[in-house]
Task: inverse folding
């Protein structure tokens, strides 16, 4: 199985170093993020293994428009017919596949080394342009998966959104506001580190049981306590 169940109705599909999430609900499935270019086959195979058809994917939510999150959006939209969602500040990048803003490593030597390996901002891959139908503002409640709240959390990317799914005690889709590769920590890079710190302080005010990350393992229990300890 390519997909792993995180909790009832929520799956992670790891493709290389990036996590893509699938929420299954009676009103259609939602994917969150799309991986680097070339990830679509693996994602669709995972969807098939879960007993779903490509056309069961109705929505594709983007946490932000970086190459590892929007890379397979065009191909997945074509294969599924799903509508795409992004924050207005990342809309132009998500729909054109280019124009990435400068990003700098988070403090610490380890971050600088990992940043070079994983992000390599000087050489973004070629990304196909596509249509992104919906712009999502801070606080919007999306009619997706029984209702999802979007929260604007700039810093890693100007138009970064986290999504809060108020089921199972609260599930935070944290995107790249932070990562959980070797424990909960700063993301490897930020467009604006001070804004990223403020966003994490804001996330630490929320209550959620489960946290899912673009990079690293999900936290399955009492997740917001870990955020409060680190950034509250
Ligand atoms: Zn990113
Ligand atoms: Zn990422």
Result:
């Amino acid at each position: 199985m390519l997909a792993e169940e995180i909790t009832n109705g929520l799956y992670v599909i790891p493709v290389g170093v990036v996590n893509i999430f699938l929420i299954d609900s009676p009103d259609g499935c939602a994917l969150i993020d799309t991986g680097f270019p070339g990830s679509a086959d693996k994602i669709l195979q995972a969807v098939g293994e879960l007993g779903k058809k490509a056309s069961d994917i109705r929505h594709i939510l983007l946490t932000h428009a970086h190459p590892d999150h929007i890379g397979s959006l065009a191909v997945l939209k074509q294969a599924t017919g799903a509508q795409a969602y992004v924050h207005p500040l990342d809309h132009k990048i998500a729909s054109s596949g280019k124009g990435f803003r400068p990003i700098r490593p988070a403090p610490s030597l380890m971050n600088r080394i990992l940043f070079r390996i994983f992000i390599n901002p000087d050489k973004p891959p070629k990304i196909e342009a596509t249509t992104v139908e919906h712009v999502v503002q801070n606080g919007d409640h999306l009619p997706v998966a029984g209702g999802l709240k979007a929260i604007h959390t700039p810093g890693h990317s100007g138009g970064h959104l986290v999504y809060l799914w108020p089921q199972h005690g609260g599930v935070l889709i944290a995107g790249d506001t932070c990562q959980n590769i070797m424990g909960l920590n700063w993301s490897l890079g930020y467009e604006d580190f001070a804004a990223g710190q403020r966003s994490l302080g804001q996330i630490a005010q929320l209550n959620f049981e489960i946290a899912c990350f673009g990079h690293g393992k999900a936290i399955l229990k009492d997740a917001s306590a870990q955020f409060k300890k680190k950034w509250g």
Notes: The chain has a mean pLDDT of 95. The radius of gyration is 16 Å. The CA atoms of residues 72 and 190 lie 22 Å apart. The pocket of zinc ion (ligand 2) is lined by residues 18, 66, 68-69, 176, 214-215 (CB under 6 Å).
